[in-house]
Design a protein that fits this description.
Elements (H helix, E strand, L loop, with lengths): L9 E4 L10 H11 L3 E4 L6 H18 L3 E4 L2 H7 L3 E4 L6 H8 L4 E6 L2 H9 L4 E5 L15 H10 L4 E4 L17 E4 L1 H4 L4 H16 L2
Parallel strand pairs: 1-2, 1-8, 2-3, 3-4, 4-5, 5-6, 6-7, 7-8
């Protein structure tokens, strides 16, 4: 599955910190109903078997909504269930090696903080870049902040889609206007909300407004 720039408008990254009595699958369904255009399953602390079952469930849901579904870091599980792709960080497997394992048709996303990292990821076969943190964020303790100037430079330096990540909310998303990104990746802006469906719908509307040239 290859994706279009419009698939990256509202890229939702899961986090089980805010389940509030719901299952992660229920929360993802609400995000999709609200208009999430891409789902990344991110699990740092689940055992492999539970992660695998959860990945299968969420994959089924994403297929129902015809939205791309990628796994964060875990190339083995992405390969095992035939996920649409995988997202890797700078400390994970190289995009080039992921491509060799998953083949030409899978989506590979790479996190980048510098123009150099962005260009290298593109050369090594990445389909898109996640750049951040563009605002201070509580979701990732070691997130390096990327200035809006560097974000613009990265967008100008590569041909593949760039999404901004880190501390993005409806309140600050318009500050990214004119940067060249084609969407935003969010965690708490959707999943920490009491009404996930509405949070996703409202944020998507704001992002569409922001990316209009």
């Amino acid at each position: 599955m290859k994706c279009d720039r419009k698939d990256f408008v509202l890229y939702a990254v899961t986090d089980r910190s805010w389940l509030n009595g719901k299952t992660l699958t229920e929360q993802v369904r609400e995000a999709l109903e609200g208009g999430a255009t891409f789902i990344q399953l991110r699990e740092k602390n689940l055992d492999e078997e539970t992660f695998l079952e959860e990945a299968k469930e969420i994959q089924k849901l994403c297929r129902e909504y015809q939205v791309p579904f990628v796994i964060n870091d875990n190339v083995k599980i992405a390969e095992e269930i035939g996920a649409d792709g995988v997202h890797v960080g700078q400390k994970d497997m190289e995009a080039e090696d992921v491509r060799k394992r998953l083949g030409p048709d899978k989506i590979i996303g790479v996190s980048a903080q510098t123009v150099e990292q962005a260009k290298k990821a593109e050369q090594h076969g990445a389909d898109y870049l996640g750049v951040g943190a563009v605002f201070p964020t509580g979701s990732k303790a070691d997130a390096t902040e990327v200035s809006h100037e560097v974000l613009k430079e990265i967008c100008r330096a590569v041909r593949i889609p760039v999404i901004a990540i880190g501390g993005i909310s409806r309140k600050n998303v318009m500050e990214l206007k004119g940067s060249g990104i084609c969407g935003v990746a969010v965690i708490s802006a959707i999943f920490a909300s009491r009404d996930i469906r509405t949070a996703a719908a409202e944020l998507k509307k704001s992002v569409e407004e922001m990316i209009k040239e």
